[in-house]
Design brief:
By secondary structure, the protein is mainly α. The chain is 78% helix and 0% strand.
């Protein structure tokens, strides 16, 4: 575990931020009146998490280990988001789990994986030489 904390420090900071944001009681704002804003936030949170994961991974590796990236870069974040949705539903009174939130989280993860592979990979590896 310490190995991954050292290797992916920014990713872990985002994981902790997502955990905090997922369980604190948010204040009421006018933003809630915008249809779908909650789903956009979910896509951005998990897309940002995986985008950063791709950056940290690509900066440290010359090739992609697809089994590690499939598991650690796609499946684990999706499972993490599903666990949070279940915990919100069963362990809090001010939050509720939502299948559409899980779908938005999954969308963010998959979009980040596509951007990571098709945009970040060529840019980062070209820069590294």
């Amino acid at each position: 575990m310490l190995y991954y904390l050292k290797k992916y420090p920014l990713t872990w900071m985002v994981v902790l931020t997502i955990l905090y944001l997922s369980f604190f009681k948010p204040p009421q704002t006018d933003m809630e009146e915008i249809p779908g804003i909650d789903k956009v936030v979910h896509i951005c949170m998990y897309g940002g998490l995986c985008f950063l994961l791709w950056i940290e991974y690509l900066r440290k590796h010359q090739t992609i280990n697809w089994s590690k990236m499939l598991i650690g870069g796609i499946l684990v974040p999706i499972a993490f988001s599903g666990g949070i949705e279940l915990a919100q539903s069963y362990c809090t009174e001010h939050r509720g789990g939502d299948w559409l939130d899980l779908a938005a989280n999954t969308t963010g993860v998959l979009l980040a994986a596509l951007v990571g592979y098709y945009v970040l990979r060529p840019l980062i590896w070209k820069k590294k030489g």
